[in-house]
Structure formats: C-alpha cells, structure tokens
Specification:
By secondary structure, the chain is of the alpha/beta class. It is built from six helices and four strands, in the order ααβαββαααβ. A hairpin with a 4-residue loop joins β2 (65-71) and β3 (76-81). α2 (10-24) runs parallel beside α6 (110-128) and α5 packs antiparallel against α6. 36% of the residues are buried. The model has no long low-confidence stretch (mean pLDDT 93).
Length: 146
Amino acid sequence: MSQVEDFLSKEEEQEIVAAIKKAELNTSGEIRVHIEASSNTEDAFKRALNVFQSLKMYETKQQNSVLIYVAVKDHKFVIYGDEGINKVVPANFWAITKNIMQAHFKKGAFKKGIVEGVLKAGEELKTHFPWQTDDVDELSNEISKG
C-alpha cells in the first residue's frame, strides 16, 4: 500500500465526499480534495495550482471553486481558491480555514481536518455564491489522487 492509500480509509474518504456534497448543497461553488504522496520538486502551492489546472477547476461558470490539496509525505497542504471566490472572501479567510484544518492534522485527525475545511469553505461559498435553481454540479465530488 502506498502512503496515499494508507492516509485515509475508504470509509473516511466517503465521509469527506459526503461533506463535499453537504457543503455544496447551498452554494453554486465547487469543492475538490486532491491527495498525493508528495509535491515532488515543486513548492506545494505551485503543485496545488498545477493540480487545480489539471482538474480544470478554473472552468466553473463563476470561477468559484476551491481545491484542498494534501501532500502526505511532505506533511503539507494548500487551500487554493479560484479568482471568483478570492475576490469576495475576507483577506484572512483561507488562513482561518487552514488553522482549523491544521489543528486537527496535528492530532493525526486527517479526515476530521479535511471535513472541517470542506464545511468551512462551503459556508463561505454559500454566503457569496448562494445556490440557484439552475445550478448544476460542475465538478466531481470524488477525491482525486496523484
């Protein structure tokens, strides 16, 4: 088993997917989680941006998608928001979300940290991008892995 497969159990992954679905219920925003062993030679932020682009998250109608990127072996994670959301969230929003996640990660509660980060992002997305009757789920809710 690789570090990525050992990071979360199948049940924990399904709890994260359920949190994504819950977070997206009241917003047109999109949230994805990507887990991989390492960002390799890239800075974690640059790697998160590359993953964001490879998942075509920039193609959402309102540019309101959020990627939670986790590099397991490196012990690093990045929360990357698209242009649309970064224009409207408070300047310290991602730092607050990161601190919530990091507190859980330090205790080894990785699933709980990701779930809390997803739900916090969903709250902010709901404020600025409320769900509309014509909304469609533009991105997969499944966890992607590298």
